[in-house]
Amino acid sequence: MDKRLTETLRHVAEFYDARKVGDVGPLGFRRSTDLMTLLKCLNRLIPEGVVRPGETRFLDLGCADGRVNVFLSYLVRISAGIELDEWTLDEYGSLKFELENELNQSGLPAPPANIYLFHGDSMDDRTHRQVLDETHTSLEAFDLFYTYLVMHDEFARLIQRHAKPGAVFMVYGLKKIMPAYDGLRLLDQLSPMEGILALYVKE
Ligand SMILES: C[S@@+](CC[C@H](N)C(=O)[O-])C[C@H]1O[C@@H](n2cnc3c(N)ncnc32)[C@H](O)[C@@H]1O
């Protein structure tokens, strides 16, 4: 990654990491990924070909305020996300607006126009059709899937059923014990990356 991109991603990470949700209190189900940690993971995700700049089609299966989507938008071709709770997804716009102002003041680029967020259930065919209609990308065409622990067993089954061989499922929030999923192989040389991110490949 060039210097300007790294600087931009660091700014985005600092912005969202200062506004984490769910670490304490009743909103634990929508805990936020630490984007500074994800930034460190990119040092391996890119050379390993898991994130292919300008090519990868990314889908966060429970995207909340879309922070992982905004972060990865600079690197991927399509940055899509699905969120069950409308009020959570509603936070995306105002946060992005605030972030863009900050980036602008620092002379850094705004996120590209490749972010598509959807209100719905990631397990629901109707949501998949909506994603397909708007992004021209079916579940079979996505390269990289993501969850922060939420519904990981169910999402693994969805990926096992619908994703193409070679698609990667990243599960954030794991520690030493990494679950096994039918039809998905743990990339054990890479996992847990930064002690928290497990990677599985669809066989
Ligand atoms: C722990 S948060 C993670 C948010 C974001 N991906 C991140 O890492 O910062 C998980 C989110 O998944 C959402 N969620 C749970 N089940 C879902 C489903 N079946 N479809 C879509 N979203 C779901 C929750 O509402 C919650 O906002």
Which keywords apply here?
alpha/beta; seven-stranded mixed sheet; 7 helices; 7 strands
If you had to describe this structure to a student in words, what would you say it looks like?
The chain has helices at residues 3-17, 35-45, 67-73, 86-89, 91-105, 125-135, 152-162, and strands spanning 57-60, 78-83, 115-119, 144-148, 168-172, 184-186, 197-202. The chain is an alpha/beta fold and 203 residues long. The protein has a single domain, classed as Rossmann fold, CATH 3.40.50.150. It binds S-adenosylmethionine.
SSE arrangement:
Elements: H1 3-17, H2 35-45, E1 57-60, H3 67-73, E2 78-83, H4 86-89, H5 91-105, E3 115-119, H6 125-135, E4 144-148, H7 152-162, E5 168-172, E6 184-186, E7 197-202
Parallel strand pairs: 1-2, 1-4, 2-3, 4-5
Antiparallel strand pairs: 5-7, 6-7
Helix content: 25-40%
**Rg from Cα:** 16 Å
Number of strands: 7
Separate helix tally:
7
Going across the biggest sheet, name each strand in turn.
Answer: 3-2-1-4-5-7-6
CATH topology: Rossmann fold
**What best-fitting shape do the alpha-carbon axes yield?**
globular
- CATH class term: Alpha Beta
Which ranges are low-confidence, i.e. pLDDT below 50, for 5 or more consecutive residues?
A: none
Give the biggest sheet.
7 strands, mixed
Named once each, the bound ligands are:
S-adenosylmethionine
Structural class: alpha/beta
Question: What string gives the helices and strands in order?
Answer: HHEHEHHEHEHEEE
Give the name of the CATH architecture: 3-Layer(aba) Sandwich
Tally of discrete structural domains:
1
CATH superfamily: Vaccinia Virus protein VP39
How much β-strand is present in the residues?
Answer: 15-25%
On the 0 to 100 scale, the average pLDDT is 95
Ends apart, CA distance between termini: 29 Å
